[in-house]
Write a structure and sequence with these properties.
By secondary structure, the chain is mainly alpha-helical. The chain has 3 domains: 1-36 and 196-289, no CATH class; 40-55 and 70-193; 319-511, Collagenase (Catalytic Domain) (3-Layer(aba) Sandwich). It is 43% helix and 6% strand. The protein has 19 helices and 7 strands. Strands 2-1-3-5-4 form a 5-stranded mixed beta sheet. Strand 4 and strand 5 (414-417) form a beta hairpin. The longest helix has 22 residues, at 5-26. The chain is globular and about 60 Å long. The N and C termini lie close together (6 Å).
Amino acid sequence: MKRSNSTHIFFGILVLLFSVILYWKSNSRRGDSPPPPDSTPASVKKDPATRILDFDVPDENPSGEDPPDRSKLRTWIEQFGRATVLRDNRTRLRLKQSAPKIDRSDLPWLFSLLSDPLYLSAGTAELLKMYRLPEAIGPLVRMIQGSATLSAKGVAIEALAVIGGDSAGEALIRLLSTHSDTGIRARAATALGRFHGPEAHRALVDALRSESNSIVRRYIGAALQQLSSPEMVEVLLATMPNEPDATVVAELAIATYQSGGESALPRIREILNRRPAARQKLQDWIDLQEGNWYRNEYPKNFFDSDQQPVPFYPRQSRIGITLDQGSSGFPGSIAPLFRTSPLDRYRDFFYLRLEKEWLEDLASGTRSPRAYRVDGSPIPGGMPINDLDGTVHLRFVAGKEFSPGILGFTEGNKAAVTSTSLLHEFGHALAELADEYNHELAKNAGGANVDFPDEEPKWDPLIRQGHLGNPVSRRDRVIPSNNCYMNNHPSDNRWCPVCQLALIAKICRLSDAPVPW
């Protein structure tokens, strides 16, 4: 498990050249960064007032008929907003496919819905984002400055980034530099990472110098990675030595290399040599890439349950699980997850919210809704609203609700489960693990736990170490083991070593837990 200093430094340099940039683009969003908008603005150069609308909005009531009843549209928007707040991607996709048509006569009424504190404002902002309406910039900014919840305001900020243009960029810069709420400033920073003009880059660097909150500075550092501005290299290099947060220094090292290229490397390396914690952070990001999970030699009992718990520290982040418990008992329904490896050693890195309570608390305007430890005990004072809320959404249902032979299903981060399928579906929802059973509906085209049969399996080092046997054939793929929850056999009693490494890697990415390899 030890690495020589020369290897450590070698990979610290390589990250700036190749690996971390690839990791940052290819892996899931990090735990300390809000999710990016759905799509990149078609243009960020023209002012929205002069842009042609990206969709065909009919003229106001050209047929002279009576205005339509907007009650159905209001219901759709409220449902859309609820799914957005809950991060219910399955429902959001379904509603998007039936998105209502609007015309210009609807716009004043739609803008009025932005004054709602939660579902209507979130759904309306999401709808305006879908249609990229430049006329919505002013109303969206007023919504962000108003009394809507942080969840709804986050949707509005994403909408500004998707709409794009000078006016939207200027609004985001003002939010970043002047808003009193750290959550708003953080989301504004992420949104500005979508604007590739020098104004956005300069505003992010200026904010980095003046921002006192370390979490917001991390957002800024991540946003700067999305931009490239050679004229700002000297500013970034001057900022790095004085930045107290090692993660931000690592983010800035990548941003500086992207802007300055090879000529900036000697000075970047010089700074990193004086900041070993930042260099280690870069190394961790490399190690979390799938190809590097297998470089380590693991102890014989590494993949067994009942290992020493990993300590949680305040600088780290907890991962949110939202429960729609149905008729299942709480917390007993969730207990099996945290009795098995590797989740048993990461119990303190998760928290639970009950969907009904979560929605009630959001509607009441609380900034710290009710939350629970994984053993069901309440967290005193709740948990502040954050970007890891609902990382996994579990809905417990009765088995009779599924078609014969189906025990559960997962779409994105939302899983419908029974007690039988809980661990299997959780593997899909958190770590995007593939199905390992033979069935025409099996999702085994990708995932860390499947490989092609005519090649040495990517997990071959685990075979040579004795943690796994030979690969097991599954249709046109091979899997690591016939005993794994991703097989969904009644006799399965573990996640196999490959699936465990995938789960650990995802936990480390989201929470900033130490990388154990």
